[in-house]
Amino acid sequence: MSESIKRVGLxxxxxxxxxxxxxxxxxxxxxxxxxxxxxxxxxxxVALGAKEVASAAEMASLVEVIVTMVPDAPQVEETCFGPGxxxxxxxxxLVLIDMSTISPVATRSIAARLAEKGVKMIDAPVSGGPWRAxxxxxxxxxxxxAGTFEQVKLVLEAFGSPxxxxxxxxxxxxxxxxxxxxxVSAIGLVEAFTFGVKAGAKAETLREVLMSATSxxxxxxxxxxxxxxxxxxxxxxxxxxxxxxxxxxLSAARDLGVPMMSTALSQQLYATLKGMGYNREDYTAIARxxxxxxxxxxxxxxxTNKDH
Length: 308
Prior knowledge:
The chain has helices at residues 17-26, 39-48, 56-60, 73-81, 104-115, 129-135, 146-157, 170-198, 203-210, 218-223, 239-256, 261-275, 287-294; strands at 7-11, 30-34, 51-52, 65-68, 95-98, 120-123, 126-127, 138-143, 160-166. It is an alpha/beta fold. The chain starts with 6 loop residues before the first strand and ends in a 14-residue tail after the last helix.
């Protein structure tokens, strides 16, 4: 463990943050947590050895590094600058590692405001979902100063494999590239599986054969068996969060003058899924739209509308 960093705080102990805090404890860091939305994971982490504090401000007075894993930029800003926020008691040299997925523009603005008070920042969004958060094997895309990255690298390695991809905000850029790809890929995969199963193929057979074809992917290999092939979308990466990420990507693309027609379609489908009430389900729940339209359950091949 790093000689200079012994105490780490984590804010946002949700589906991703809770197992990440567990991994900090396993790596021997003195770990501090505070409730953001839900007390249950805080109580579970305290039982494992974490220390609870009342606010981000109290946390900032005790630790060398604070990790945030919250839904979006407003929550990061509130954590940093709101009542009871980090800046109320932050000492110069404190490092904020924001592992949320937010706009690169917001990241750069937050980093600049923190820097005025001597607080350094690394944006380090992740990919891999709750399963890889639990195993400590997340892909971590970090943006910021190289010296600060080296300073906190062992903290990041508690969560997975960090790579410095550029200056402040570039971690978020690379993460949004990832989200664009999975958003568009999930639509293509679900659409194709719906077609194949309705035509008489078995979903498991499709996956087994296609994994060694050119269409094989991480999504097909690791994610689909957990959700689509069980027709169970209760666990994973919430579709409303992917919808939020795609909105951020489209906003940045407008500023850059980059056309993103496929991403726009994907975002609209995820907005539809949210309107149907499935916003907390895994993003592969986009299959619900296709299955309902085609009258078939991908996992079983069962026809749900005999008129189709």
